[in-house]
Amino acid sequence: MVRHPREVFLRQPEPAVINPANHHVLLPHVGCAADELPLSHADGRYWDDMLDTAVHELVLQDRLRLVATDPGDTGPHAVWSGRGAPAPTIGLRSASRGEYRIRTNDGAPLGSVDAARVAQTVHAGAVYLHQGASWRVVELDHVHRCATVARHDADTYTQVRSNSDISLLEVAESTRVGGIAVSLGRVLVTTQVVAYEERHTETHRFIRCEPLEMEPSVLDTSALWWAFEAEMIDAAGIGPVELPGALHAAEHTGIGVLPLFALCDRWDLGGVSTPWLEQTAAATVVIHDAHPGGAGVTALAFEHSEAHLRSTLEVLTTCRCATGCPSCVHSPKCGNGNEPLDRGAATALLSYALRADARPPSRLTPSTRTVRRSLSRSPEITTPTSGNRRGRATTETLSMSPGPRPPWSSTRSTSRSPRTASAVSRATRSSGSTITDLAVAEVTRTT
Fold this sequence. Notes:
Layout: H1 5-10, E1 17-18, H2 23-36, H3 44-47, H4 50-60, E2 64-67, E3 77-80, E4 99-104, E5 109-114, H5 118-121, E6 127-130, E7 133-141, E8 146-151, E9 156-177, E10 180-200, E11 206-211, E12 217-228, H6 230-235, H7 243-257, E13 269-277, E14 282-289, H8 297-303, H9 305-318, H10 343-353, E15 392-398, E16 410-416, E17 425-426, H11 437-446
Parallel strand pairs: 4-8
Antiparallel strand pairs: 1-17, 2-3, 4-5, 6-7, 7-8, 9-10, 10-11, 10-12, 12-14, 13-14, 15-16
């Protein structure tokens, strides 16, 4: 923004996005509503077709039950049948269930942290920043879900080192921008925190690295990914030594520009890059929502894939640093310590791949035979059937309309593969803007 001051005043506001179809949000929401007042088919106006799926799943989990109604009603009512009231068990700060309390060593409450972020923020030895004051985590108690902290006066900060593994579960949509295959779908991200580094706050000088033994965390969420075919990489002049750093730098920069498209920051996102992903049979960059079930940010980015990629390239091209800096390729939360990063190779790769005459890749869309299906299927993302990969997809829906079919009964229907982005509600219909006039024009055109 410092290098593009006009964009502060001229670009459209970035849209706020939510994903009401996210089961981590939908099911608790419907459960709380049923606890306050029995649900009927008339309540479908608040959730559209998603109410059918939610009621069906909550009944199977014994958290809702169906009760008979008067003969004049259109069907049974769904009432809460779980243990206790559902509202107190739901956190207001995140979609994941459960929080860890943070207390000082004398027992005074300091704050709380989402259970999904415990390994990154309040592991043993972590420096935790609260209202401008630094605290050192002296104990992490998983049984009582509590982190004990003590005042930390040294001018240092900590950052975790982690290993991540990613699996593509389902593919919702695929498109191509230049020579890059862009896909949207569900992924399973497994992250293992293995150590933490401590550095000086002002100089970032390395002080020490301490190993950690923590349970891996698993995140089922939505993501978009870019696939680069080997022939295109060779034509761009990227060798096997430069490729990991090029993909890693492109990943960081792609995440860094996404707040220009949606109301988020880089902590709402995560990423994985690899020179070879078996399920795409290509070098791949994956950018995923950091919230269980997905928040809708990557779905919005997929809608404007070309503008997103060109904005990423512009940041790489115009940054005035020599080899990479926090303004372009460095990330404050990289689990690999920002290694390896190759800004020059990333610029060369995207510059060639986004050319109009870049050779179309031949195997960019993952085969359904290589994409693992998840047992817990999201209703908004389906995988094309192997018999008709580009056309129709069979999905399971639940009847909400009164009629000859029993209410809330499972039926099978065949329909066009749904756009995940259609499940994303926007606080404003304006498209995400980018930092270049070209990208702004592209977003306006696609809208």
